[in-house]
Amino acid sequence: MNLETFKFDIDPDGVALATFDVPGRSMNTLTARAVADLAAIAEEVASNAAIKGLVITSGKTSGFCAGADLGELGGGSGASSGGGGEGNPEHKLKAAFERSFALNKILRGLETCKKPVAAAINGLALGGGLEVVLACHYRIAANDNPKLQLGLPEAKVGLMPGGGGTQRLPRLMGAQAAAPFLLQGESMTAEQAKSNGVIHDLAPAAELVDRARVWVKANPNAKAPWDMPGYRIPGGGPNDAKGAPVFTFGSAMLAKQTWGNYPAQKHILSAVYEGLIVPMDAALRIESRYFVKTLMTPEAKGMIRSLFLSMQELGKGASRPGSYPKYDVKKAVVIGAGLMGAGIAYVQAKAGIETILIDTTQEAADKGKEYSRRIVDKDVSRGKTTKEKGEALLALITPTTDYEQARGADIVVEAVFENPGIKAEVTRRIEAVLGETAVMGTNTSTLPITGLAEASVRPDNFIGIHFFSPVERMGLVEIIKGKATSEETLAKTMDYVLKIRKTPVAVNDVRGFYTSRVFGTYPEEGMTMLAEGIAPAIVENVGRMAGMPMGPLEVSDSVGLDTIVKIGRESAKAAGKSYEQNPVGDVMAWIVEAQGRVGRKAGKGFYDYNEQGKPSRIYPDIGKKVEVKISECPPALKIELTKRLLFRQCVEVARCFEEGVITDARDADIASILAWGFAPYSGGVCSYMDMKIGIPTFVEECDRLAEAYGERFRPNALLRDMAAKGETFYSRFPSREREEKAA
Ligand code: NAD
Fold first, then answer.
1. DSSP string spanning 540-577?
2. Is the CB of 422 under 6 A from ligand 1?
3. Which of 347, 400, 417 to mutate to test the pocket of ligand 1 (most atoms within 8 A of CB)?
4. Hey, which residues are catalytic here?
């Protein structure tokens, strides 16, 4: 056998050992080559009479296998090219089925080869990795590896398990128990896997292979449970009185949670339902059919590209410019220990960075540090960290009013009040103690960076570092380059953002930057609908059904209705108009000023909030200000309102590209999902326009919406040009380093 990814030996007792060990990689993935090697091994085991049984294990200390190679899968599905495809669709579909059924065929061959097959699982086995071991007759896993996780995470990136996972897992643990692993991509520890019947035994990693060998020798006639007479599905199958409700309720729950936006979850449930009522061979064909169907959806293509490939690239600093040496931030200053500053101090200390937290009074600075203490205490009480580690983290934060303490710092993040005068004064004071090469960052959410840099003596070191609230939970940092900001400063800032384990996306300096500007159109369109007389409950439900994390009115409450009024007035003033003269401005001024309802922070806004800060009901008196004219939502209206809410954001994205605010489709997609939760099933704003809708249709529809609702929907010249040339955002605005690689 000419194997590349496995080592293969046969011991004197005839027990073969296949050791999965992809050369040059720290972790095994199920590449096309690994699948081919697995096929050769299965064939050899079945046909070589000298082989009495097989043990499969991994040669990597990091684990057994992290799953399919999504890079290969994404490329094959057109995920990285933006979709499309040529050739006879029927042939294409048939070929795709054969490709995806190949793994099922190999694993089923192994399972029915009439020789015992055991898996010795030394570390994590995810996705295809878990599916390989599920096809073995016996599974023993390490009980001394805390990183060992078993799971099927495919659904998280819009895919479904395609190597028998949807069939074997529910046959082992029951459909209901398997649901969170299949539908939400949850994973289990070795102990959990043992207690729910997925693993037969546990042992120290060093003993696994020997124990597996012993089992193989003792069980020459091993069969999978479902290939034995009298096998019954734990908890009952879809046609049993006990098992059926799992599917009825499961289907209803799924519809409630996903609003039908996630084809993978729907297909998984169908594959489990249909597969459990037929024998395993037919069940695996059913799974492969749903797998192909899922893989070909724009949702899978968009989600694999953004949530897996792009996240991985950006997490490795793919968009970091130039060849500047890595900037290792050891000491950082945060000025302003309020909501944002306190969170930034925490994430810095968590990354091991010495942090000076400055405010105007010692009391305010101490209060900022208290925020970290609260998080640490909670983590200690939940066993997420130890007391010692927590104390070490807190010891890294020095709350103070003394700028002298900042000497020697590598970077500053200013997070004082959103006031240019105060920001300028703070910049002057801190720069007086900073070294020549330190980065001066501002966390402003609205003020142009180039203007703020005027207060700086080293504007080339000055940059926007825009965090999102709550800082410890939000994964994105929007980096804003001012006119004078140097490429080196950008590279250093990216290194800092990566060190605190956030995803950096760089944009150019225009009011509202990228995220705030585009995100703001969503609540605004919702409030416009409200002002038109559409019942608030319809506005909210359509927002959530469109895949947004909150309805537009609830989002407005979270931002703060007073803040929205303030920004609205400033923008109207800049445009030479009156805010109150537009219907939204009128409603907003009424709710904030006449009703005194400023949003979630005050416990009352468009919603009333309970003591836990959760919305309890929509403010009933809204009807006194705006007469409800539409209180029913037939499907056609739902489609129209969905388009208004999502297309409005997308048109603004196109304008940001045209104005050069953002220059890379990958960044625009990732930022849209991480910063404001834009319909994650789409893969982000660009993928939504490129693949879910298609640019020509998008342009046509936006023209129609502009006629019906206003010029805010009018497509810009860029969109028209792209439609005429058959371009997508990914083809017109590719990533810089992908371009360089291609050249
Ligand atoms: P905040 O009011 O909670 O905190 C501001 C802190 O700055 C206060 O503790 C205040 O005492 C301190 N401060 C004021 N003047 C100071 C000075 N001269 N020297 C030192 N400290 C001073 O505000 P926040 O919400 O944390 O916002 C801070 C900045 O972050 C603003 O620029 C804001 O636009 C931006 N921002 C806020 C959010 C958000 O969601 N709140 C998100 C992104 C960015």
1. HHHHHHTT-SS-HHHHHHHH-HHHHHHHHHHHHHHTT-
2. yes
3. 417
4. 466
What is the distance in A from the centroid of ligand 1 to the CA of 336?
6
Cis amide bond preceding 734, omega within 30: no
CA 417 to ligand 1 centroid distance, Å: 4
Is 477 touching ligand 1 by the criterion CB < 6 Å? no
Q: Compute the average pLDDT of residues 199-205.
A: 97
CB atoms within 10 A of CB 112: 15
What are the tens digits of pLDDT across the range 132-168?
Answer: 999 999 999 999 999 999 999 999 999 999 999 999 9
Cβ 340 under 6 angstroms from ligand 1: yes
CB atoms inside a 10 Å sphere around CB 393 = 22
For ligand 1, what atom is nearest to the CA of residue 469? 40
What residue type is assigned to position 509 of the chain? Answer: D
Helices (H), 28-88: 32-47, 70-76
Is the alpha carbon torsion for 431, 433, 434, 440 positive or negative?
negative
User: Quick one: residue 185, left, alpha or beta (phi over 0 = left, psi -120 to 50 = alpha)?
Assistant: left
125: part of which helix (H) or strand (E)? strand 124-126
Q: Whose CA is nearest to atom 14 of ligand 1?
A: 416
Condensed to tens digits (0 to 9), the pLDDT of residues 301-322 reads: 999 999 999 999 999 998 899 8
- What is the identity of the amino acid at 96? A
Q: What is the number of the ligand 1 atom nearest to the C-alpha of 423?
A: 18
Ligand 1 center–CA 401 separation, angstroms: 15
User: 455, 450, 411, 449: which is closest to 429 by C-alpha?
Assistant: 455
Whether 30 and 63 have beta carbons less than 8 Å apart is answered as: no
| Ligand 1 pocket test target in 334, 358, 362, 416 with most atoms within 8 Å of CB | 416
- By most ligand atoms within 8 Å of CB, the mutation choice from 347, 359, 570 for ligand 1 is 359
Q: Is the CB of 444 under 6 A from ligand 1?
A: yes
pLDDT for 59-78, tens place per residue? Answer: 999 899 999 888 776 544 33
CA separation for the pair 52, 31 (Å, rounded): 27
Angle, helices 521-532/552-559, rounded to nearest 10 degrees: 120
Max Cα distance, the chain (Å)? 89
3-state secondary structure 657-687: HHCCCCCCHHHHHHHHHHHHCCCHHHCCHHH
Q: Are strands 397-400 and 6-10 parallel, antiparallel or unpaired?
A: unpaired
d(CA 414, CA 346): 15
442's torsion region: left (phi>0), alpha (psi -120 to 50) or beta?
Answer: beta
Q: Could you give the CA distance from residue 422 to residue 442 in angstroms, rounded to a whole number?
A: 12
For the stretch 578-615, pLDDT in tens is: 877 888 899 999 999 999 999 999 999 999 999 999 99
361-411 per-position pLDDT tens digit: 999 999 999 999 999 999 999 999 999 999 999 999 999 999 999 999 999
Average pLDDT over residues 103-121: 97
Integer Cα distance of 122 and 139 in angstroms = 11
Q: Is 451 exposed, middle or buried (0-12, 13-18, 19+ CB in 10 A)?
A: middle
3-state SS record for 364-423? HHHHHHHHHHHHHHHHHHCCCCCHHHHHHHHHCEEEECCHHHHCCCCEEEECCCCCHHHH
Share of the chain above pLDDT 70, in %: 97
